[in-house]
Design goal:
By secondary structure, this protein is an all-alpha fold. About 80% of the residues lie in helices and about 0% in strands. It has one domain. It comes from Klebsiella grimontii.
Amino acid sequence: MSLEVFEKLESKVQQAIDTITLLQMEIEELKEKNNTLAQEVQSAQHSREELERENGQLKEQQQGWQDRLQALLGRMEESNASRPLPFGRGQHFPVLYTRKL
């Protein structure tokens, strides 16, 4: 009877060892996946920072162009205000009709 109990105990110990080995392998796989995901997160953060920098630069460029355009429009208005309109204020330019042949 003690041999039978010993064999059962040995079987259970072997099952426990197998389970521990499988769990250790699973832990290693999960660590690798975790490292991969951490690298992907770091890469995504780096890309986001680059995009935010580029977005800031583009916004500055856009503001510069808007400022230039406003300055040009202001100069055009000043120029037009100092010259009388050829047809008077409120009047429209004559429309020329052409006949198609």
